[in-house]
Amino acid sequence: MEIAERIGLQSNTKTRLPYFSLFRIALPALALITALLLHTLVPNVQPVLSTRGFTIVLSVILLLFLTWFVASLFRPGVFKSLHYFSNITTFIIALIVVWELLTLKSATLPLPYFPSPVKILDALINDRHKLLICVLYSLRLLVIGYLIGAVFGLATGILMGWYKHFQYWVNPFLRFIGPIPATAWIPVVLIIFPSSFTASIFLIALGTWFPVTVMTWSGIAGVNKSFFEVARTLGAKERYLILRVAVPAAFPLIFIGLFMGLGTSFVTLIVAEMLGVKAGLGFYITWAQGWAEYYKVYAALFIMAVLFSTIITVLFKIRDRILIWQKGLIKW
User: What's the protein's topology in the membrane (predicted)?
Assistant: First the structure.
C-alpha cells in the first residue's frame, strides 16, 4: 500500500499492484543471478583465457542492484527510478545471457567473428593501457579538428547571413565543396599536408565546417527584422546587432549545425585513423582486424559507443543550459 502511494498508483489497484511492482524492481537482480549461475555452472565450449573477470563484473553489478533494490523500499525517488529502468535493464541482461549461450557455451556463432562477452571483457581489461592511449589520441584529434571546423563554420555562417556580398562570393563554393564527403578528400590531403595528423585534422574540420556554416547562415538570415529595428532605435551599432541580437536569436539552428557537425566528425575521425595515423580507436580496430582479433574490435566499438554518446550528451546539456526555453525540445 505504501509503495503504491509512492509511485502514484490509483486507489483501486493498490491491493494488487504493489506485489507486481516489487517483482518488477526485483527483476534485474533475478536476471543477474540467473546470468551468474549460467556463467559459472554451464561448461564452456569456446576457448577463453579466464572467466574470472566476467564473474567479478556480474557479481559487482548484482551487488549494486541489490543495494538499489533495498534502498528503493525506503526512498520513493529511488523506487521510481528502479521501477522505470527495471524492464530495459532486465532485457539487456537477457540479451547478454543469450549472447553468451550462443557463443561461449555452445559455439553456435563461430569464432573469431562472434566472440563471447567474456572475451570482449578480457580485451577491455588486458588491453586497457593501449585502449586508453588510443582514446586519448582520438580525443585529441577530434577536439582540435572539431573546434577548428566549428569556429570557421560559425564565422562563415555569420558573415554569409549578415553580408549579402560575402554570401554572393562564398555560396557557389559552399554548394560545390560542401556536399563532398570529407573522407573523399583523403587521397588529396595526404599529398598536400606534411603529416597524416594534420591531414586528419583538416578532414575533421572540413566535415564539421559545412553543416555548421549552413545552419548558422540559415539562423542569422532568418532572424526577425523587428529585433534589429528595435535595437537600432536604442542606438545599437552593427557589432552589437550581430553579437547580441542575431547570434543569440540564431542559437537554436546553430546548435543543430554543431550537432550535425559532431556526427560527421565522428565518421571522419574513424576513417582518417584507419588510413593514416599511428594511434587512435580507428587505428586500433584496423590493427585488431588484421590479426583477426575481432573481440578487440568489439571492445573498441564499445568504447566508441560510450565515448561518443557521452560527448553528444554533454553538447545537449550545454544546449539546454543556454537555450533554457527550448529545454527538451530536441530529444536525446
Answer: Multi-pass membrane protein
Closest by alpha carbon to 330, among 249, 254, 227?
A: 254
Grid look-up 561518443 returns 308
Rounded CA gap, 305 and 317, in Å? 18
Rounded to whole angstroms, what are the CA distances from 81 to 14, 16, 93?
19, 21, 18
- Report the chain (332 residues): mean pLDDT per 10 consecutive residues: 49 57 86 90 82 88 90 85 89 92 87 88 88 91 93 93 90 88 84 84 91 92 85 84 87 89 88 76 88 90 91 86 71 68
Name the pTM for this structure: 0.81
- Among residues 103, 123, 124, the alpha carbon closest in space to that of 115 is found at 103
On whether the CB atoms of residues 272 and 282 are closer than 8 A, the answer is yes
**Residue pair 80/25 in contact by the 8 Å Cβ criterion:** no
- ∠216-249-242 over CA atoms, to 5°? 75
Q: Where are the alpha helices (DSSP H) in 73-195?
A: 76-102, 117-126, 128-162, 164-177, 186-192
Give me 329's grid cell: 525540445
